[in-house]
């Protein structure tokens, strides 16, 4: 017994908060934040958005939205978690009426973590498939049908025959040694080998959500492997994941650089880059409102705000850590990564367009089609293609994993805040249990209809539910808890700052950021459409299920508010007012950090004080 106590004390001797634990050093926290923020979307969504919305000109609204919407929310969430040393649910002791917002964040994170690991499983499958001398999607092999082709196939055209211009099949033109008239050629609808491999071999895709089919066993094994990696990285919480991110957060940059250097040496690479950010840039696109909406949405999702993960990761910081500098550094790194990734993607897609004799606009894509169809097709045309394919999918796996670490850490942090003693004793079994349950929930996503499930959850749960929680978060903190009070809380951590220092943050927090979030939310709701996957339309029950998922996420906001009001004391107005005040146990976790402002604070480990009372107004 004495030995175990001594060992535990030694293991956490550098921790400021011995009960919860702290990051071993600043770099582990920063790399975890970068790994969380920099994910698959930086590689497979931003480059396409930039190309679609004016190329280089898109960087203007993207940077503006970073300053006006992304950075203020990022800084706010990091400050909130660090100040209270609590996760996304318990941190709402600051405003009990809005504690449901924290629960919504955790529920949304749970939905997303189910399908996010399935995408990592896809990447793992392609990673293993790359260990072959000839990439299995490089040609139309036995699994292909008659529509599979690496080059365009002429269907018919106008030609001159016995002095008359006629429309003829290309077989007739070729048999009679005729020549097609320029500008009259029509092509057959063909598919790249990589597209048919993705649908027919990797996914074994069924006809729709109605046809579930069987579990694709090799994808299930890849999913199991992905969850084993996550569980192994988190078996000691941040103490183990903080070590893993040195590799998972940094090595993708090495691979991106290698891919960029290789891509830049290829013929046609310049054409791809010019489409991305060069002479094809269109400054007039900035006059379109949708371009600004796309920039705001991409910034919001890319930085991973309103998921609860930033609050959870920051809750393990030491109290006087400079979260202001951290927020700026991570946000700039995240956005620079997106731009940098675009060069690596478009240089190789430019080469693919050159080889297949197509314009770049016909080979570029986003999402699954970029990661598992267009880019693998481009890589298969390079010398030593298995090496480049391995590097690319290894990068996707790493980008996905460190985001996944943070999402699962958000869930375990929430459990820890509910019962710290149980989590401290049983961290490993609880972490394994969480991962096992999420693995079982994800099995529906590795059936033959799995891609439809992944797309369905992504369409509903990674959409406007986040915008609702983000908008309520900033409105609650700034207008109800009090922006001035929140700034004073931050100054307790990073030191007193001048009024001019806070001017920009006040303008954003009090007006610009909430207005932008509400505007994007309204736009998203008014332009909302039911999900489709390619040309496949979802059945009515699938759409209903999607709405049930999003309702199941946001319903906690009114439910918790009503429960808090019912549990409070006094008449209705007194109850409402008390629920809009911090609970008696809100404030810095450790007594030595509370100062005079929080000298009357109750023990934060005492849950009895989480039920607001009229007397809470004192605090």
TrEMBL record:
Entry keyword Cytoplasm:
no
Q: What is the lineage of its organism?
A: Eukaryota, Metazoa, Chordata, Craniata, Vertebrata
UniProt name for this protein? Transporter
Organism, by scientific name, is: Quiscalus mexicanus
Q: Which residues form a coiled coil?
A: none
Query: What residue ranges are annotated as transmembrane?
Result: 29-46, 58-76, 97-128, 215-235, 244-261, 295-316, 328-354, 387-408, 428-451, 463-482, 503-524, 544-566
- One Gene Ontology CC term in the entry: plasma membrane
Subcellular location(s) of the protein: Membrane
One matching Pfam family, short form? SNF
